[in-house]
Structure formats: C-alpha cells, structure tokens
C-alpha cells in the first residue's frame, strides 16, 4: 500500500460519517421534497387519498395566494433592511473593539454572547422587553410617557413590529459578523496605514481607501451570511411576533409580520397543504440561490489581491 | 509510527460507527424482556401537565406498562394538530391522542380505532360517535362564558343574574368603567385578540355567533354560514358585542397579551370580567385568587340568552395502527373505573367528569359554575368545530386582530366577516 492510497482511504473513512449524515438529512429529503411539490401530497391520514401528479399547479397556486405574495415582499424588504443594519452595526463594533481600548476582549465577548442564545428564547425575552419593559420606561421617565399609551406598543403595529424584528435580528447576529470583521481588520498591514498617515491621509480617507478594499473578502462572507440568515429567519419571527399584528393585502386580511419561512410552515401545518408548502419551499430555495449567487459574484469583483 | 497511528484512528472511527448502530438496538431488547406495553399519550392542556405526568407515573407503576405523557398547546407556538402531523410524518404517531370534533376526525379517520363496547362508553352521554360507532373518549365537560368577579359586581351593585343580553352588559360595563379607580382595576374585561390568541376570538368568541340563544345541538346558524348565507341582523348584533368587549378591554392585553397576561389580569383582580372558560381554575388556584367568581352568559344578542357554552371539547382516540392498543384501552378504562383515575380527573386536574359513575365534584369555582349551568339546562352548543381550523386561524383571526388594533371599524369588520363566509 503506497502512502497515496492510504491517504485516500483515510480521507474517505473520516469523511464517511458526515457524508452519510448529509446524504440522509439533506440530499435525499431535498429530492423527495422536490418530488412531492408536483403532487397532491398531504401528510395527514385522510382516508381514500391517493398520491397524484398535479404538474405545476402547486407553483401557480402559490403565486395566486395573497399571503404567500405578501410574505415574499415582506421578506425581501426585511432582508435588505436587516443586512444593512447588521453589517453597519457589526462593522462599527469591529472598528471599536480593534482600537486601543482597555477591556476590549471583554467587549468582544459581550457583543458575541447574544449569538449563543437560541432564537426562540431571544424572541420571548425581547417580547417581554417590548410589551412590558419599554412601556414601564414611560412610567419612570416623564419625557417618554407616550410609550405607556397602548396604541404605541411596538408589537401592536405592523411597521414597528417589523422594525422590532430587525432590532432583535441585529442584536442576535451583529456580534457574530463583528468577529469576522475583527479578524479581517487585524490582517490589514499596519505599514499601509502608517505610510498613508505620513502622506497626510485622514482617518476617514484611510478607512475608505485602505481598510475597506483590504477587507473586501470579509464583506463577501458577511453579506452572504446575513443575506441567507435574514431570508431564512424563522425562530425569532415565531416567538417575537407570531406573525401578528394583521394587515390587509390584495383585499384580504392576513398576518402582517409573517416572513416567508413562517408562511411556508403555516401553509404546511395549519392549512394542511403539504404539497403546496413544499412547492413554496422549492421556490424559496431557487430564489435564495439566485440572489446569493448574484451577491457573491458582485462582491467577488470588488476583492483585491495583495 | 505515523502509519500505526493512522490505522488506529481509522479503526476507532469505524468502531464508533459500529458502536452507534449497536446501541440503538439495546433499549428495544430490554423492553421485550419487561413484557409490559407502552402507552404514549399526547394531549392539549398544558395547564394540567404536572398532574398528568404524576398520574402517568402512578398508572405505570401499578400496571407495569410504560406511560409517556406529552402536552402541547396553550400559548406556545405549536398546536396539537401541528405536533400530530409532524409525529405522523415521522412515523411516531402516539397511541392515544386528542381530536376536537368532526374536522379533526376527518383528518385522522383512517387510523382511529372503533371503541364501541368498551366499558366506559356505558357511563357517558357525550362520547364522540360517528355512524353509530363510538370512537372518542370525552376528556371532560367544559364551558365558557363571561367569568365575573362577584365581589366587584356586588360593590358596583350589579346582579350577575341580570347579565343576559347586550344592553345589560353595556350598562354594566359603562358603570364599572367609571368605577375603575374605586375597584382598583385596569380595565373592565380581560380580553385577548393578539396574534397568539386567535383561539379566544376566532374559536370561542366566534361561537357566540354560531350558537348563542339556539337550542342545544342546533347547527342551523352555523350551517347557514357554511353555505355562505349571512344573517345580517345576527352578525350585526354580534359585531356590537365584539366591539363592546374590545372597547372595555385593556388595550395592551388585547393587542399583544398572551394567555398568562389575560388570565393573570383577572386572577390578580385587575379586571372584573374574563373571556375564558373553566379550564382557568388551576391558574386561579396558582394565583391564590380567593374572590367569589362565576360565569354569566355572553351578551352577543339583544334578546336574552340564559346559558353558557358547554360541551365535551375534546376526545381521546386510540391509534389503531399502534402495537399497544390493549394497553391504551386499559389506560382509558382505568381513568374512569379506578379511584386513582377519578381522583386525577376531578381532584388533580380539576376537570368536570363526563362519567355518571364518578361522584366527585371539582373544587374550582368556575368548574362548579359550569356544573350549575348544566344542571339547570342553561347550555348552548359548541359549533365552532364545524369550521376548519385553517379558516378560523388564518382567515377569521386576522380580522378580529385588526378590529382589536383599531385598523378597521365595526362596519369593515362586518363586511370582512361577511366576505369571509361568502368566499370560504
């Protein structure tokens, strides 16, 4: 047995457990799911129901469903706002914790910790903050007394509830993205900054012309991660707003903060239209792939090599 | 040396893989040796979960079977139906589960066991039957109306017996609203219409429209709506009632509150009325609510309606594909015929028994009130289950929610409801 052969065997043996898991829980279900999206499948034990092919009916029906269309639009809006909010916050935090501060490691840990809390719990914590803590703030400080008015409850209005989702999403995810920016910022050679400073460049100019181009690779990663994370947002959505408050769209009353993932879940488990939900999940997958490929290719063009 | 190391590592990975598969088999073998069956039960009353766990353990100890009790629902974000669908898809359908009515029955028809002839069927009149077959074991008798704080009504000089129509409620609410400081309450009614509380509005309150004032078992009003025929007068009076409830509720609880904040407001004497049922008794006990309370009818009509909504809300059914059908049957019979089972149903879980051979009475004041109403025949049916869960949760609940938020007015509420029935 040559070394090369042996290496190959070791490679596959070590890879096999994860490959097996990946195959069983991702690849195979994905194709089964795609198959079901073309049928009239319903998981419940309804009598006398036979699996039939219905072609693209589930897909065309999905685009006629007001709640699916609404969630689609809402999710795109949410994703854009959330990406901007997370990246700006994370970048500023990263600049902050890489400067010459005392206790900067403690700050890093502090900003990162929310990422370690599960999204469901986080949603319930923030639901308490928005529903109880903030109104009672109005009791304490006279200037904020408008907060005590139930009409101004953040989760009782559609627009402010979406904003609340973004605040919580940012709080949860900015620390993680910050870590990526920190690693990138620390790899920027100090000589470049020194040389620029001697040439008379201001701090803003140095960030614009040295830091940002030098960490363009990090932008590719963070943009991709935040895009995918925001698009797939589910747990915080469920626990923080549960889809409410409701609103009107295409002349129908529906849930106003129901993001796409939650909408698909409700289609499957409340409306019991499993096959249609599956079709929506396939649409969701395709759209996410296209958007993220576009995003990565645009970002890649902006990267510079040392 | 390096080669030996890699070989060793490779072997250990392989051993781990083999080891895993072996371990998975181990518990099964142990079960067979024990000889007893195993009963998995899934139910939808999280408020009695601790009592049910204790009873399950007791039953398991007595019979030698294994008993796994699971509770789903309440304010958590997954409903029983969702859990069952997930379990079914995963091939882990419980042995005993709950159906709430004909819509649920239709969903699970193919796996529900015919229990006709079981000993318990002779002791109850509210079992769930389809085409002459007894398929559902009534869990309890339940009821809801407007729960009131008797002490506060006395203070305000309002006789709860007079609260039988819209005008009486309107006058009472106005009077109580003026006495809020004196009574120390935040609002008159504790009502919830938030995104998680669609079951209070679109299930329970909605039933006022379907059955208030009609003879028990009369489904005509519901049937008309199912056919898309809307009785504008009945709906109009109902809309007045919904508006009245929303107007005198605490807006914070109404729009964003959950079960705990809604029930808590009443239990801690921060509201005079509560729009809930007798299942809140354990919550009242937990909160040490000692004031006198009872149920008054809903005021959804101008005409007098002297009754509250009472029925067996849910039924245990047995999964006939299960390997443990006999143990599951025994579990249900034991609940009715053993002292421990009766003690669990009535004293521990505080439920009103649906069985004639059970002579215990629940301790909770609201449960007693339901028993009193039933005894004098002041009962109206539960017809909300004639509508699908999807229609109530996804179509009606957002309408109530918008009305509660003030996004739409009463006229728009009536219009949206009418359209919902016509386009169902």
List the helices and strands and how they pair.
The complex is a heterodimer of chains A (306) and B (424).
Chain A lengths: L2 H34 L20 H8 L1 H33 L5 H9 L6 H22 L17 H29 L3 H9 L4 H12 L1 H16 L3 H6 L5 E4 L2 E4 L4 H10 L4 H28 L5
Antiparallel strand pairs in A: 1-2
Chain B lengths: L1 H33 L3 E6 L5 H15 L2 E6 L8 H10 L6 E4 L2 H7 L19 E3 L2 E6 L3 E3 L1 E4 H7 L9 H13 L1 H4 L3 E4 L7 H14 L8 H7 L5 H16 L3 H6 L2 H9 L3 E4 L6 H6 L6 E4 L11 E4 L3 E4 L6 H13 L1 H10 L16 H11 L3 E2 L8 H17 L4 H13 L2
Instruction: Identify the CATH architecture of the largest domain in chain B.
Output: 3-Layer(aba) Sandwich
Question: What's the alpha carbon Rg of chain B, rounded to whole Å?
Answer: 25 Å
Largest sheet of chain A: 2 strands, antiparallel
Shape of chain B: globular
Order of SSEs of chain A: HHHHHHHHHHEEHH
- The percent of residues in helical segments of chain B reads 40-55%
Which structural class is indicated by helix and strand composition of chain A?
mainly alpha
Instruction: Please describe the biggest sheet of chain B, giving its number of strands, its sense, and whether it closes into a barrel.
Output: 4 strands, antiparallel
Largest interface: A-B, 41 and 46 residues
The CATH topology of chain A is: MetI-like fold
**How many H/I helical runs of chain A?**
12
Using the CA coordinates, give the radius of gyration of chain A: 24 Å
Mean pLDDT of chain B: 86
Quaternary organisation: heterodimer
């Amino acid at each position: 047995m040559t070394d090369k052969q042996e290496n190959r065997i070791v490679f596959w043996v070590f890879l096999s457990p994860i490959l097996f898991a990946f195959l069983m829980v991702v690849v195979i279900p994905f194709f089964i799911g795609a198959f079901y999206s073309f049928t009239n499948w319903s998981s419940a034990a309804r009598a006398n129901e036979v699996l039939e092919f219905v072609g693209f009916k589930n897909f065309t029906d999905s685009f006629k469903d007001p709640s699916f269309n609404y969630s689609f639009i809402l999710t795109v809006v949410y994703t854009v706002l959330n990406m901007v909010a997370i990246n700006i916050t994370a970048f500023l935090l990263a600049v902050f914790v890489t400067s010459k501060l005392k206790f900067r490691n403690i700050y890093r840990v502090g900003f990162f910790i929310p990422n370690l809390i599960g999204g469901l719990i986080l949603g319930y914590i923030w639901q308490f903050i928005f529903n109880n803590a903030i109104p009672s703030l109005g009791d304490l400080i006279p200037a904020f007394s408008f907060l005590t008015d139930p009409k101004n409850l953040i989760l009782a209005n559609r627009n402010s509830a979406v904003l609340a989702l973004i605040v919580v999403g940012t709080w949860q995810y900015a620390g993680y993205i910050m870590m990526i920016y920190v690693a990138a910022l620390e790899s920027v050679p100090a000589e470049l900054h020194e040389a620029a400073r001697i040439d008379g460049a201001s701090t803003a100019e140095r960030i614009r012309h040295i830091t940002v181009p030098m960490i363009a690779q990090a932008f590719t990663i963070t943009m991709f991660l935040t895009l995918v994370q925001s698009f797939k947002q589910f747990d915080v959505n469920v626990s923080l707003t549960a889809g409410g408050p409701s609103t009107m769209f295409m002349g129908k009353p529906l849930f106003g903060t129901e993001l796409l993932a939650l909408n698909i879940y409700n289609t499957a488990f409340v409306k019991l239209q499993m096959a249609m939900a599956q079709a929506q999940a396939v649409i969701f997958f395709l759209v996410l792939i296209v958007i993220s490929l576009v995003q990565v290719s645009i970002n890649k063009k902006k990267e510079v090599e040392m | 040396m390096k080669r030996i190391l890699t070989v060793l590592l490779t072997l250990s990975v392989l051993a781990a893989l083999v080891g895993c598969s072996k371990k998975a088999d181990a518990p099964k073998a142990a079960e067979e040796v024990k000889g007893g069956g195993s009963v998995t039960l899934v139910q939808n009353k999280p408020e009695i979960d601790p009592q049910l766990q204790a009873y399950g353990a007791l039953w398991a100890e007595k019979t030698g079977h294994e008993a796994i009790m699971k509770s789903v629902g309440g304010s958590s974000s997954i409903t029983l139906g969702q859990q069952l669908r997930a379990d079914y898809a995963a091939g882990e359908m419980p042995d005993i589960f709950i159906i709430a009515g004909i819509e649920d029955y239709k969903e699970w028809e193919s796996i529900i066991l015919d229990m006709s002839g079981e000993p318990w069927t002779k002791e109850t009149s509210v079992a769930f039957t389809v085409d002459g077959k007894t398929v559902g074991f009534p869990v309890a008798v339940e009821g809801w109306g407007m729960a009131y704080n008797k002490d506060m009504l006395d203070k305000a000089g309002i006789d709860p017996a007079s609260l039988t129509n819209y005008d009486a409620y309107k006058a009472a609410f106005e009077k109580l609203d003026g006495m809020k400081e004196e009574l120390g309450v935040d609002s008159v009614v504790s009502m919830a219409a938030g995104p998680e509380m669609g079951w209070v509005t679109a299930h329970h309150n909605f039933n006022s429209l379907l059955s208030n004032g009609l003879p028990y078992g009369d489904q005509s009003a519901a049937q008309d709506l199912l056919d898309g025929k809307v009785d504008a007068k009945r709906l109009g009076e109902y809309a007045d009632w919904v508006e009245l409830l929303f107007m005198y509720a605490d807006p914070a609880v109404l729009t964003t509150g959950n079960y705990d904040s809604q029930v808590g407001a009443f239990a801690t004497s921060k509201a005079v009325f509560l729009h809930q049922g007798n299942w809140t008794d354990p919550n009242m006990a937990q909160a040490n609510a000692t004031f006198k309370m009872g149920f008054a009818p809903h005021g959804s009509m101008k005409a007098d309606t002297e009754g509250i909504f009472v029925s067996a809300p849910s039924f245990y059914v047995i999964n006939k594909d299960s390997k443990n059908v006999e143990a599951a049957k025994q579990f249900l019979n034991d609940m009715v015929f053993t002292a421990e089972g009766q003690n669990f149903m009535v004293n521990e879980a505080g439920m009103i028994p649906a069985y004639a051979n059970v002579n215990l009475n629940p301790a909770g004041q609201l449960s007693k009130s339901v028993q009193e109403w039933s005894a004098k025949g002041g009962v109206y049916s539960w017809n909300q289950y004639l509508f699908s869960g999807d229609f109530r949760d996804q179509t009606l609940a957002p309408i109530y929610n918008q009305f509660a938020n003030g996004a739409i007015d009463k006229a728009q509420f009536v219009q949206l409801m009418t359209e919902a029935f016509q386009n169902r």
